[in-house]
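Predict structure. Input: Alpha/beta fold hydrolase, 276 residues.
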Amino acid sequence: MAAEISFSVETARGSRTLSVTYERRGTGEPLLLLHGIGHHWQAWEPVMGILAADRDVIAVDLPGFGASPALPDGVPYDLATVSTVLGAFCRALGVERPHVAGNSLGGLLALELGRGKLVRSVTALSPAGFWSEAERRYAFTTLRAMRVGARSLPLPVIERLSRSTVGRTALVSTIYARPGRRSPEAAVAETRALRGATGFHETLAAGGGVLFRDDIRDVPVTIGWGTKDRLLLRRQGVRAKYVIPRARLVRLPGCGHVPMSDDPAMVARVLLDGSA
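Output follows.
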């Protein structure tokens, strides 16, 4: 069952106390899992059981997403601040330099933690921050449309749609190549997470000018990209490899933007290899 922890973080406006929700399973070296914008820790549920056999797996709801409250007033959702929050979260759990894996926004945050040498290894699945301006505008427009759609549909309609493969395709096919593999319960839960994400607009605003341009030299990096990613096109993975030449670039055949449910066994293998 997910837990909540509170801790203090130093910000430009002084010390602030905040809380985040997380799920922790398994034993072994710690592996921190970071979801994408508008999602929640349950995005990792399809691979959690496999990972927990070999890792101390910690999947967190980022501030303002899932069950985690928004950041305090005046505290920005930029990379530096959220990375500081994640560092404080790990210290509060007694975890020192975990491996980290992230998807989309979470992938960008994972790379930022790697750049700061705060983690043992980084695995980034379709990370944000390697887009052209046109690609960024397309992604942000798509995300805003998804948010409007999630907020405009009454909950009974969402639940009814979730009961069929066609309905689940309508709800979540933008981010999954195989939306039929999502359970009705998962499709409803993640649609509700998107509509209730208090940090959504602030995170998009903070990401408008973000480009990841720094090599990561002393931390192993794996970058995975789904061949059917419709949100962040896979050519962005080639740019990521150019920025981080030592990174291992892995093709994820048949996977969409959020690949964990499209092919759990393959994605889990990539995460375990990346955190070896």
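The chain has ten helices and eight strands.
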